[in-house]
Amino acid sequence: MKLAQFIERHPYRFVAIMxxxxxxxxxxxxxxxxxxxxxxxxxxxxxxxxxxxIVIVLxxxxxxxxxxxxxxxxxxxxxxxxxxxxxxxxLNLIPDVKIESFAQVSAVFAVTLAVAFAEETIFRGLMLQAxxxxxxxxxxxITALLFGLTHAMNALTGKNMLxxxxxxxxxxxxxxxxxxxxxxxxALWLLILxxxxxxxxxxxxxxxxxxxxxxxxxxxxxxxxxxxxxxIFIMQQKFHPQIRGAQSSxxxxxxxxxxx
Length: 260
What we know:
Elements: H1 3-9, H2 11-36, H3 40-62, H4 87-93, H5 102-131, H6 136-150, H7 161-185, H8 188-203, H9 213-235, H10 241-259
């Protein structure tokens, strides 16, 4: 059975496999990083280098580069919908930045770009594309929940349960808003850029700056509510006719695949 046929007939199985690949990649590289005494930056780099290679192979084999959203915006006005997701970038820059050397900035740039590309292409690309024929809301919610649960692994880094729970909720909300944008605006590359800028700004923050636990919780909860509401707002927008037609065609292919 060809890969595309497998995805059409077994979308949930494919999504489960992709989630397992992500978890295993982080667990394996985390183990290596622990025994070799590597930093978290090195861990993210190793994990997402492997994930990036896997994603490139899958997208090329499936010929899904344009399908998942590596295409120009249909309308220039759609660019405005990607402004609100930039709020975390601004918040991460508030403490000011510290650039130690060109090598340090280059390493942060490479790692955060790999993280953004791998995560967005897996969750808002491959996974979303697999479930989309079964319903846009279902696809957005499922991929958002999986994205949030994947961040539960951060509890292994020593964070307490409350911090981990808030991060999971925050990641789920962002995953939902990003999924809505991917479905409605069909520009995955813009989500990759936004994700990259958010992580890059975080990792070049000046060390030592810390808000009180109250303000940290307030910001995280506020962003969680904001992104959830924004995702619902985007999902309620009318679909572009071409997208609706593509969804119907894919749903028909899935139905035909199940009947054969």
